[in-house]
Amino acid sequence: MKIMKFGGTSVGKPERMHQVKDLITRDSEKKIVVLSALSGTTNALVGIGEALAEANKDLAKERIDILHEHYLKFYKDLLKTETARVKAEKIIKEHFEFLNIILKISFNEAINRDILAQGELLSTKLFYTLLQELDIPAVFLPALDFMSIDENSEPELKKIAEKVKAILANYPNDRIFVTQGYICKNHRNEVDNLKRGGSDYSASLIGAAVNAEVVEIWTDIDGMHNNDPRVVDKTRPIAQLSFDEAAELAYFGAKILHPASIWPAQMYNIPVKLLNTMEPEAAGTTITAKEQGTGVKALAAKDGITAIKIKSSRMLLAYGFLRKVFEVFEKYKTSIDMITTSEVAVSVTIDDLSHLEDIVKELEAYGIVEIDNNQTIISVVGNMIAESRGTLAKIMNSLADFPVRMVSYGGSRHNVSLLVDAKYKNDALKSLNNGLFEW
Ligand code: ASP
Ligand code: MG
């Protein structure tokens, strides 16, 4: 069994959906096909929810109608036969009637999540209709029948696995299964989701649940690149990464993969491949447990970081100081990305500023607190970075012209993190690109 997940751009146009059909029928392997919503749909649904949250029903209605138009055009380009078109019309009617009914009832968060779920429901149903039209045997698997999260919004992998296996057992001879990414049920049995970009996470959870041979993530770029193509001129795809390296890159800014999607694959040792729908023969990136090569493989950058320094002479020779500091962050459920310490001070970074004021107030009990906003973490990712001769020197030389606020190495052998003011980010990435890679 393999998992093939297709993102929004891979299903966003009728001709792309046909390409997806070609890709899933190239071999006779058993596969679960996980689809995102058509590109732009989830954003549109977010917009509808926002309009309703502000009680602006006219705006919500306008946004529903625009989206509706899009689907009415889409299915006509997707499907040729009368039978299939009638089916698609019914599907679209059902989902847009639902959205229009919501206009009439009072809005709440649970309803908002129902709205957000419409995108994946529509894309999978329309795709399934295409398979039916072409007489391609397939089974439609509603994700809401097996995907679930607990009260902390964490996926319930054990339950998911039991349910998926029980459902699949009903179809011993079928080879293609189609399901939704992103959507799930929560502990109150309401429709919920795995957060934006969560379809990758769905795919790897399903992969873990069925112990898949491979989880293929099909997007519109040929794998994870060694630097941010939006910032530097030259980048290239990275052929191989370990789970740890991929997790660092995904977390620290490589937009191609949802960071949470690494752990289920890593836990069950299932290779993850990042592939390009538009260029299916390209090698893409393969992520496995194997740690290969030495030295730097890629750079990523994460914006919107705030650095907090706590300086205290009481830290000198004291134990328990760091615990007290960390407890403040724990109390406000704020996660820390980078940490550096000296004997009299500690600096940490956070990206969630919702409790910054409270955090600072409490930290002031332990020392002088200083804040630096608008910082960027540049993450240099690879294998055995410090063991590879000259690499640390090259990193530092490349950054010679920029004030570096924090440096962190040694937490793992896969990552050197550097904190710079956001205004230096682009130039720092360019300079590192020239200094670290052979072009
Ligand atoms: N459709 C959802 C989103 O746009 C989930 C996904 O595509 O991964 O965030
Ligand atoms: Mg995505």
| Low-confidence residue ranges | none
Task: Kindly name the structural category.
Answer: alpha/beta
Strand arrangement, largest sheet? Answer: 3-4-2-1-7-9-10-8
Largest sheet: 8 strands, mixed
Mean pLDDT: 95
Large-scale geometry: globular
Computed over alpha carbons, the radius of gyration is: 24 Å
Number of helices: 14
Head-to-tail CA distance between termini: 39 Å
> How much helical structure, as a percent, in the residues?
25-40%
- How many runs of DSSP E, i.e. beta strands? 16
Order of helices and strands: EHHEHHHHEHEEEHEEHHEEEHEEHEHEEH
Residue fraction in strands: 15-25%
Bound molecules: aspartic acid, magnesium ion
Structural summary, described in words:
- With 439 residues, the protein is of the alpha/beta class.
- The chain is built from 14 helices and 16 strands.
- It has an eight-stranded mixed β-sheet, sandwiched between helices. A six-stranded antiparallel β-sheet has the order 12-13-11-14-16-15. A two-stranded antiparallel sheet has the order 5-6.
- The two termini are 39 Å apart.
- Aspartic acid (ASP) binds at residues 7-8, 36-37, 42, 119, 181-182, 196-199.
Features:
439 residues; alpha/beta; eight-stranded mixed sheet; six-stranded antiparallel sheet; 14 helices; binds aspartic acid
Short description:
Helix 2 (14-24) packs across helix 4 (57-78) and helix 4 packs antiparallel against helix 5 (82-102).
